[in-house]
């Protein structure tokens, strides 16, 4: 999965793909433990896909939201009570 392709999907579609990827990862781990997995590198690929999907879902959720006072921003601008 490419990030460019995923950015065109809606939140619901991203969430569905995330559920499918997590299910696939579970199945791959199960196959690996029982010695039936033919391509163990697929586990790594699916884990990266999950991370990519979670990142995109997080970006959508925080788009346009300003950081709370005292969080983020420039260093040294926070005020301390005296």
Q: Give me the Rg, rounded.
A: 19 Å
- Report, as a whole number of angstroms, the end-to-end distance: 52 Å
Question: What composes the largest sheet?
Answer: none
Q: Could you give the order of the helices and strands?
A: HHH
Strand content: under 5%
Structural class: mainly alpha
Poorly predicted runs? none
Q: Into which percent range does the helicity of residues fall?
A: 55-70%
What does the average pLDDT come to?
84
What would you call the shape?
elongated
How many helices does DSSP assign? 3
Tell me the number of strands: 0
Explain how this protein is built.
- With 82 residues, the protein is mainly alpha-helical.
- The chain has a domain at 11-61.
- Helix content is 61%, strand content 0%.
- It contains 3 helices and no strands.
- The protein has helices at residues 3-7, 11-33, 41-62.
- Helix 2 packs antiparallel against helix 3 (41-62).
- The longest helix is centred in the N-terminal third of the chain and has 23 residues, at 11-33.
- The radius of gyration is 19 Å and the shape is elongated.
- The protein starts with a helix and ends in a 20-residue tail after the last helix.
Structure summarized in a few sentences:
By secondary structure, the chain is mainly alpha-helical. Helices cover 61% and strands 0% of the residues. Helix 2 (11-33) packs antiparallel against helix 3.
């Amino acid at each position: 999965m490419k990030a460019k392709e995923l950015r065109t999907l809606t939140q619901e579609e991203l969430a569905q793909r995330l559920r499918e990827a997590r299910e696939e990862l579970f199945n791959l781990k199960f196959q690996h433990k029982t010695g039936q997995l033919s391509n163990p590198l697929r586990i790594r690929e699916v884990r990266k896909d999950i991370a990519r999907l979670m990142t995109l879902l997080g970006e959508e959720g925080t788009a346009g939201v300003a950081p709370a006072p005292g969080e983020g921003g420039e260093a040294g601008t926070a005020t301390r009570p005296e």
